Amino acid sequence: MYYKQLDDFPKNFLWGAASAAYQIEGGFDADGKGPSIWDVYAHQPGNTFKGTTGDVAIDHYHHMAEDVALMAKMGLKAYRFSVAWSRVIPDGDGAVNEAGLDFYRRLIKALKQNDIEPVLTLYHWDLPQALQDKYNGWESRQVIPAFEKYCRTLFEAFKDDVKYWVTFNEQNVFTGMGYRWGNHPPKVQDTKRMFAANHIINLANATAINLFHQLVPDGMIGPSFGYGPVYPLTGAPEDVLAAVNADDFNNNWWLDVYCRGEYPYFERKALTRAELMPEVTAADDALLKSAKPDFLGINYYHGGTVQQNRLEKPVKAGDAKEFSATDPYLMQPKAEQAQSPEVPMFNAVSNPYLAKTAWGWEIDPVGFRVGLRQVYEKYRLPLFVTENGLGALDELKDGEIDDSYRIDYLQDHLKTMKEAITDGVDMIGYCAWSFTDLLSWLNGYKKRYGFVYVDRDDDGPKDLKRIPKKSFYWYRDIIKQNGAQIKA
User: Active site residue: 139, 267, 362, 387, which one?
Assistant: First the structure.
């Protein structure tokens, strides 16, 4: 849809930036913090790029005041961060570590003093290692009451100061990476176990939302989902059907549970036929139906393109799209998992119309608008963009970083987001990924996302000096004018 003029961003639109505890905090054992699954996994040889870990990361734990001061200088209206579960409850379900809780209390206070809305993520992939050892992590229902206790601790501590809460970050990504591809902890390669763990996480999500509505009646809570719209490669009906299948498999499988309290019918039937459907009790169904999110968080980097499945349309050697270990959304089977459930449904391919980042991720700002439109039309919940950004090889030259490519990327995505608002999508805010440079889970420190450069590399922390990039000042001006300079 074409517009000569775009609607304004909402008056109280939350212009923000985001982070995750393990990727920035450091202080892995400071003040009584217990180990998380990532603290352990990153120290196992061969699991991360050049053996990089979050032991120090960018040491936000000890640079928090400096980082918040930079947020204030930028004029941020919101800052999305995650709490490290094992910093607050070191063994996952035992005594509360008051020193760990106090770190987040001080962070929230500093944000509020600078008129920055805290957006608190309860779980961003760092399960306490004690729960992995004790219960086998998310494969056991016994983790649900532990998560409920952890959530209760945070709800009661911060209910008066935090309005926006995120339950799980990219459940579709961390279950696939951890339980199917085996390149995140717990390093499992078993599709059936992935779907089983995913169901337990759905129950934990519903439990947290219901508890939140009891304890924080004036707040808003919802999951953040790694969303990617799906395109058919051609107008051939077989490719269109493949795109419908892929959307069901990659998006609706999670979003329908979050927003409708039920698994999508066609996908549930397909997994049952493949003997991959997890056990769902009547009590499970009731719990999932009872939990209603107040908004949906959308993490957008790219979508995917598909064609007719490879069984009906065999693929020539070398023609199939090869996915990297960090390609987050389309779950395309590897050779050893050719029996995977999506094989009869669709075959993922590269989109010939899209450029790619240095890491092979397609750049598709129009897909951002497509995705926002699709999700809002289907579920009619306010949307909060909780991640969107560009990972790049930023270079420090003469004390400055000219990341004009990041500005171009973000400018294009903000324009299509503004077009989606003009279309009628109800938007709460936008948190760019990320505020500072940080640890990329599997790519170390060379893949930079931040508005603020942090002087460290894969070989060590150096002096950790914070240096605002060119994009820092560009985004500051966007915030100051509430995006008025973004035109049709």
Answer: 387
